[in-house]
Structure formats: C-alpha cells, structure tokens
Amino acid sequence: MARMYQVQAKEVNCRSCNKTVMEDAYHCPDCNVGAPGIYSRCPQCKSENYVYHKYGYAFIRGLLAICIVGPLGPIFGFIGYNRTECICLDCKQGWFPFQPEEQYTRLNTYVGEEGRMSRKFKQIPSNTTAEKGN
Fold first, then answer.
1. Beta bridge partners of 20
2. Is residue 133 in a domain?
3. What is the percent of the chain with per-residue pLDDT over 90, rounded to a whole number?
4. What are phi and psi of 75, to 5 degrees?
5. Is residue 1 one of the residues assigned to a domain?
6. What separation in angstroms does the CA of 15 have from each of 9, 48, 64, 125?
7. Residue 95 has pLDDT above 80, yes or no
8. Looking at the 3D structure of the chain, how many domains does it have?
9. Run of H or E including 11
10. Residue 112 falls within a domain, yes or no?
11. Residue 6: inside a domain, yes or no?
12. How far apart are CA 9 and CA 23, in angstroms?
C-alpha cells in the first residue's frame, strides 16, 4: 500500500526544466513552475500545473478530541501533520501524492501517479502563493 508523500529539504531535479531545486520549494527559481520537486498530476483534469501545501496542526480536531478522550485530545490534532497536498491551478482539485519509489510495479509500469483525491478548493491557500506559478 502506498504512503502519502511528505516533501523534504533535499535537492532534486525540477520536473519542468530539470535544473537542481529544493524538493520543498513552492516554485522553481528558473522556470517558475509550481511544486518543482514533486512528480505527480491532477487526478481530475490530468494537468501538471499545480502547487502544494503542507498540513499543520489541526486545532479543531484537537479541540473536538478533548470532548471525547479528555486531556489527551490535543494529541489528535497532529494526525496528518506535515503531509503534502497538491492543488491543481487549472481546476483547483486537491490530491495527496504517493511516495515516488512506490509508484512502480514489478514490471516497471507507472501506476497511481495521481495519488488519492482530496477536496476541491475554492481558492488556493495562501502558503502556496508566495510567487505565482505558470
């Protein structure tokens, strides 16, 4: 079973221009493509024009868990912390990309490149738009 991907601060090649970028960069400094270190595509429209954001602590989940489990409730706010979600700039569909090394089968065929769909966004979150992508 594939695990959801978490970007890291490591050097990779840009998926558009192939220059060296940090995997956790929001935009490539050379070609300005969004999420240059993540190789995926939109499961809705198959576009490769996307950005990503990382989930933080879920305050509401933590508060609701206090009502159910008591003082240990805030721990549940960390579920999904730091996972990566891609957002298509064309149709605003969100998805969780899978680990790249788990996308190849024994016959070296590429499967599941889109990842698992999440919600549809009305607007792109602010932590992805430090620079405007293509």
1. 13
2. no
3. 7
4. -60, -35
5. no
6. 16, 9, 40, 22
7. yes
8. 1
9. strand 11-13
10. yes
11. no
12. 6
